[in-house]
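Entry for the shared binder. Reason: the reviewer on the internal report wants the predicted structure included alongside the sequence.
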Amino acid sequence: MIDAKKDPKMHDHLRKEFEKLKKLDEIRKEFIDITAHELKSPLTSVHGAAQLLKKLYKQKMKNDPEFMELVQIINNGCDRLQNLSINLLDFTRIESNLVSLDKEDHNVVEIIENCVNSMKYVIEKKKQGIELCLPKKLTIRIDKFKIDRVITNLLSNAIKFTPIEGTISIRLEVINNMVKFSICDTGIGIETEDTEKLFKKFSRINNEKLKSIDREGTGLGLYLSKKIIDLHQGEMWVHSDGKDQGSTFYFTLPSN
């Protein structure tokens, strides 16, 4: 075996290859960042137009469910693409250690309720039950926008991987100076060997039931969510008793 430390030519070659790889990684991050930024403006226009269309014609077209369904499809598609662009931007910032938190005092109960309301259409379409076990008010110091995204991501996954007429339960409690959030579903469950994979970037898990589920996305949602909770000095984890046993995602945040 050649020892690069003792072989100046080999050492120089490895250094040059490392520099090439580093440069390629910088180009990759820059490309993702530029692409995500370029997506934002046209998406904002399309999404705004679709929302205005729904608002202006909701009463006029109430007897035409097909029209409203098509407008909702446009809105859902825009939501997905906007989430994708945000995830890509956050990914490049986290990878470059450029993410910062804009912390202020916020009522986390209100954030949860708003997230549930924003997904009411999808929840009702799948005839799922939502159980909320929340205090009337709980104010903590957080980056509201980022925590909203974490809750939205977890709720979206719970809805997606829970069958029609399933149940999703959301609980919030304070334990030992930490706020503990949990979202439990009656969905397809997670095998033990897959639980560690979930929070890795671009992760995918194998489950035969996933073939019939819309899985479009970057595979970055849970990875970014955990990073956001880590930045808040909290923890995130998941528990499932296995296939078809549902799953519960948890995260904690400092209460003060």
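Summary line for the report: DSSP finds seven helices and seven strands in the chain.
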